[in-house]
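Q&A log
Question type: sequence-to-structure
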Amino acid sequence: MKYDKLILEAIKAKDRAYAPYSKFNVGAAVLTEDNNIYSGCNIENASYGATNCAERTAIFKAVSEGYRKIKAIAIVGNSEYFTYPCGICRQVISEFALKNMEIIIVKSKNEYIIKTLEDILPQAFTKKDLK
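Response status: OK
Response body:
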C-alpha cells in the first residue's frame, strides 16, 4: 500500500506521546509534496490550553523545515475506533493541504480508512476567503 511507511511513522509517533492527563495517545505523520515524512505526537500540559495535538505537531515540524504543501496525513489514536482530527487540526490541515490530499484514519497498520479534506471539513475557511 502506498501509505504503509506513513502509517508506521504515525504509529511510532503515538508511542512517544506525552499524555499524562488524558491517557489518550495520538500519533500523526505527514507526507510533503516531495515525499518527506514528518511525524508528531500529542503533547499535553497541566494548563490544558497549552496542549498540542499530534497532527499539528507533525505539520508544524514540516512547516518549520520549509515545507508548505502536504500530500497526505496519517492519524492514529485509540485502536478500538477511528480517531479523527479535532476541529483546530482540521483547520490547520486545510491551510497546508494540496488539492486532493488524503487523510488516513488509522486503527492499526492493517485497518484504516482514507478520507479527503472535503469529507471531514466541507466548505473550509481558507486563504481564498480572505480575498
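Response note: The two ends are 39 Å apart (CA to CA).
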